[in-house]
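chain below, 297 aa
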Amino acid sequence: MIVLCLTSCPIGLRGDLTKWMMEISTGVFIGRTSARVRDKIWERVVLLCKNGSAVMVFPAANEQGLKFQIHGETWEPIDFDGIKLMLRPSAFRLKQINFQKTGFSNAAKLRNAKKRGTTVFKQKHCTTPASYTVIDVETTGLNPNTDDIIEIGAIKIKDSLKVDEFNTLVMAHKPIPSKVTEITGITQEKINTLGVPISDAIAKTITFIGNLPIVCHNANFDRNFIVEACKKENIPFEPTTIDTLILARSAIKGLINYKLDTLARHFSIINDNPHRSMNDCEVTWQLYEKLIKLHQE
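prediction:
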């Protein structure tokens, strides 16, 4: 059984879907199809839903017995310990998403961007910083209030060239979950041997960033962990933030998801050590540069 929910999508799309599925309530469809047909339906939904959003849930041979895909939604599907969860967006993320959807003039968007700490892409010309810092963190979990940063990576970019980099392992207050070690390759032994206190790590990170804007993929995650660590250390940190996840969703349609590794494959970016901070920084940097070109075009 497939369940598909549409929000604010064109009526024509809803009519088109009735060829394969039954609409049991406004924007809610159910049906049974092969995996191939299901994927084609999803491609059609992504292509035709315009500014609307869509969520599809379907059976899968995993612990939960299901998988789901989203498009245009503010909630973000994530994998945690082999279980698919939905990450509820923070106020920061909602501001970014809602800001992009507003119909203000370019001048108004630029004024508001300065207030909100976000970077805006004009319709014809791309307003981008000449220098910025790409940030990535690895953590013991998903909650910045209760989980720990175990690695911080950052690279400094000037005129599209890497000019400096920073990387450190960080001591955790809790044992590292085995699933985190499986995903990242970061062991408890490495943290015990090479990890530095979070106070030292965060101070060096903020010094490295300086006054530059930061670029992250799924900035809601990395930025919130950094901000929370700064609060605990009484370090002021309110950076201008650019999220390549949001930019990718705006520039590229029809992908099955917008994870960093999926986008790396789409752009043929080398991604040989995923879920390690320096590798993810390098991939995010190259992804950002490619997205800038797409927006300029």
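The longest helix spans residues 277-296. Residues 99-106, 113-126 have pLDDT under 50 and may be disordered.
thats it, cya
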